[in-house]
Fold this sequence. Notes:
The protein is mainly alpha-helical.
Amino acid sequence: MNTQSALWLGFNLFVVAMLALDLGVFHRKEHAVSPKEAGAWTGVWITISLLFCGGLFFFGYWNREQALQWVTAYVVEYSLSVDNLFVFLMVFSYFRVVPEVQHRVLFWGIVGAFIMRAVLIITGTALVQRFHWLLYIFGAFLVFTALKMAFSKDDDAADPEQTLIVRLARRMLPVARQGEGSSFFTVEDGRTKVTPLFLVLLVVEATDLLFALDSIPAVLGISQDAFIVYTSNVCAILGLRSLFFVVSSLMDKFHLLKMGLAVILGFVGTKMLITFFDIHVSIGVSLGVIGGVLLASIIASLIWPKAAEEPGVPTGAAQPERDREGAKP
Length: 329
């Protein structure tokens, strides 16, 4: 077995071991994750990720350029995940998923994300290495996405019940009227049926796939090394669950972060496009710009806080007035 194959195998075995440890030991008992606990776990995952990158650099498997590419890709993926988390929060609120089972949904959602992203990354890197002009298409797509994100309104979010994945699931799968705690399947009327919580998991998976179509091209604009792209994505996703519980308690404070993410997408897309004119932005400059934009959007959100909602407008007013039968898992 050569070094590259050993790195792929060792990394994936480590990820599986960490996931088993997470669900089987640390979160074996379902409970609502507090912001303090989530913050601690976020720090743990970030530390493990940076140690992974630092270890490959220290032992000579990566040079300085590759290590910087990994850190930049990791920061981009992690920051873009924040917008993903806002959608998760909306979906959990809509389907009334209790805090005690949210971690379980995110856990299995992330397991599915590993598989989907691995396919997309391996396919994407192979295509870009063979057809370099695809970078220009990805770049144009990222610039378009950045403009769309920058000018979209907060109330533009779609009704989760009307998404294609939920409508297809309700047509093709037997959906139980009532949930069974944290179970995705139950027996009702003598038949095995999926619970409403399973529909939530499907929405989470579909949402991650849609966001991967933005984030993976962005990371490919930083590196076309499949191992760098894959491991940076996976390390960012590993910390996604704990980051969700941090973001859910702070989402109103960092309201300008969405604009910052749009700027980052636009920057990476432009960086990919200008390579056509043989103009290349160094990885150090890219990391500085991306980190600076993130920091500036967070500081700006604190300096200019979001205006308070008008009195008399109840929380969750955007939800449909009808009673969603069986929506509470």
